[in-house]
Amino acid sequence: MITVRAPATSANLGSGFDVFGVALDRPADFVRVSRAEETTIEVTGAGAQYIPEDPKKNTVGAVAEALDAPAHIEIDKGVRPASGLGSSAASAAGAALALNELYDRGLSRSALVPIAGEGEAVVSGEAHVDNVAPALLGGFTVAVEGDVHAVDASVPLVACLPEIAVSTRDARRVVPETAAMDDVVHTVGRAATLTMGMCRDDPDLVGEGMHDTVVTPARADLITGYDGVREAALDAGATGVTVSGAGPSVLAACHPGDRRRIGATMLEAFAEEGVTGRVYQTEIGRGAEVVARE
């Protein structure tokens, strides 16, 4: 029996739609696997009642099939579904690492990324790896046309999760199909700035690089109170604010001493719109890791 801790993640980071991702220090899923004749799934924890246990409809079922590794898989959800914090990716990445260990498949973490991505396709309809890549590799990741590059980074972050549900499928439907050249140039510049900031562990550059005029505005409309929360966080010292993944979580980059104040301010701004939520004072963390062998 193998137990893996698989972290929440944040994808896109504003300017890096379908490309950028970071592993978060918290929250996380715990995935436990044991050998079985056929795959069965048991889900507990945050939002468990909304997650199907049918292997054909669950991300981990697709991973088990891809690895030819039938197992009884227990998922303790710390990452709420429909949160914008890579909930399905955490489960998929955790299962991929755990089953690889359980059956001694010998695959590298990089080789497990596309396998976990197949699990993501069960939820979103497409095998995106912008969440599963950081969930497996840790740090800041760049995924382009099947290639994934990762770098360790240390930037303080605040993730504010409102009690609103935004599905990945709905969030993808509102993404514009075209963009003006000025917006493309702006986005490329911001993405380059964010990448440099990650390589330098510079919260100011990372925050500056989060700004996006193409995808984020469309997705922000799905989040009640987003504009007010963003402005409040910036006024409280955030260096940049954007939608985390498909939303509704809102992600802020900041300096270490500002996380508590920024988190409280974001919650207050949501409360003014009648929306409750919770805050994770976090940072860029490690990828999935085996925490127990029995």
UniProtKB/TrEMBL annotation:
Q: Which PANTHER family match?
A: HOMOSERINE KINASE, HOMOSERINE/4-DIPHOSPHOCYTIDYL-2-C-METHYL-D-ERYTHRITOL KINASE
- What is the recorded name of this protein? Homoserine kinase
**Which purpose does this protein serve, as stated in its record?**
Catalyzes the ATP-dependent phosphorylation of L-homoserine to L-homoserine phosphate.
Task: Give the catalytic activity.
Answer: L-homoserine + ATP = O-phospho-L-homoserine + ADP + H(+)
> Keyword set for this entry?
Amino-acid biosynthesis, ATP-binding, Cytoplasm, Kinase, Nucleotide-binding, Threonine biosynthesis, Transferase
Family listed: Belongs to the GHMP kinase family. Homoserine kinase subfamily.
Q: What's one GO BP annotation on this UniProt entry?
A: threonine biosynthetic process
UniProt-listed InterPro entries? GHMP_kinase_C_dom, GHMP_kinase_C_sf, GHMP_kinase_N_dom, Homoserine_kinase, Ribosomal_Su5_D2-typ_SF, Ribsml_uS5_D2-typ_fold_subgr
Record GO cellular component, one term: cytoplasm
At the top level of its lineage, which domain of life is listed? Archaea
Family annotation (SUPFAM superfamilies)? GHMP Kinase, C-terminal domain, Ribosomal protein S5 domain 2-like
> What are the recorded GO MF terms, alphabetically?
ATP binding; homoserine kinase activity
UniProt xrefs under NCBIfam families: PRK01212.1-4 (NF002288), thrB (TIGR00191)
The entry's ATP-binding residues are: R80, P81, A82, S83, G84, L85, G86, S87, S88, A89, A90
Which compartment or compartments is the protein found in? Cytoplasm
| Gene for this chain | thrB
Pathway(s) of this molecule: Amino-acid biosynthesis; L-threonine biosynthesis; L-threonine from L-aspartate: step 4/5
Q: Which residues form the GHMP kinase N-terminal domain?
A: 60-139
Q: What is its main location?
A: cytoplasm
Q: Which residues form the GHMP kinase C-terminal domain?
A: 199-270
State which Enzyme Commission number(s) the record gives: 2.7.1.39
